[in-house]
Write a structure and sequence with these properties.
Layout (H helix, E strand, L loop, with lengths): L5 H27 L3 H31 L6 H35 L6 H28 L7 H7 L2 H15 L3
Length: 175
């Protein structure tokens, strides 16, 4: 598979180093700063933006990938793009969004709040979409076409709907 190329390995290593530096910075901020809540909130927002960008872009790649012949040069390019987007951007961003989000909820003592329960259900559903997309990345990597382009056009809208629910809960805290 194209993800095992030297360029892919270097990209993965760079992403791992960046993730490590990011986590180290978070630990230092938490231990040394009186404003760790605000820092973690900022990190959470950055991670969510990166994760959402991937959740919006990956199904677009699937739409185009569905329409090209398996084994073609275009198909191989899509495999590389999908795999790197998922492994190097989306996975770390999702993990950081969860970690920082849970810290914020703990720090704000919101675990008994109804709005947080609804938000977490939305985030769990978003994580389910993430896993579903990951399975599709693997299927496309094996030159399978798990679904047609129409299906991926519909699936492209699900993260947007979940995002609306999640943002409304986080900002309005209606209950």
């Amino acid at each position: 598979m194209s993800g095992s190329s030297p360029d892919g390995a270097r990209s993965g290593l760079r992403a791992g180093i960046a993730l490590g530096v990011f986590i180290l910075a978070a630990v230092l901020i938490y231990t040394l700063s009186d404003d760790s809540y605000l820092w973690f909130k900022a990190f959470h927002i950055m991670a969510v933006i990166a994760w959402m960008a991937g959740l919006f872009y990956l199904p677009r790649l699937f739409i185009y990938h569905s329409d090209v012949a398996a084994g073609s040069e275009s198909s191989e390019l899509f495999k590389t793009m999908e795999s790197r987007l998922y492994r190097i951007i989306m996975n770390p961003a999702m993990m950081m969004a969860w970690i920082f989000g849970l810290f914020i909820a703990w720090q704000g003592m919101w675990f008994s709040a109804g709005w947080l329960h609804v938000k977490l259900l939305g985030v769990i559903a978003m994580t389910g979409m993430h896993v579903y997309y990951g399975r599709a990345v693997k299927a496309f990597g094996r030159d399978q076409r798990p679904r047609n382009a129409r299906h991926w056009r519909i699936m492209n809208e699900v993260p947007a709907l979940l995002m609306i629910l999640i943002v409304l809960m986080a900002v309005l805290k209606p209950f």
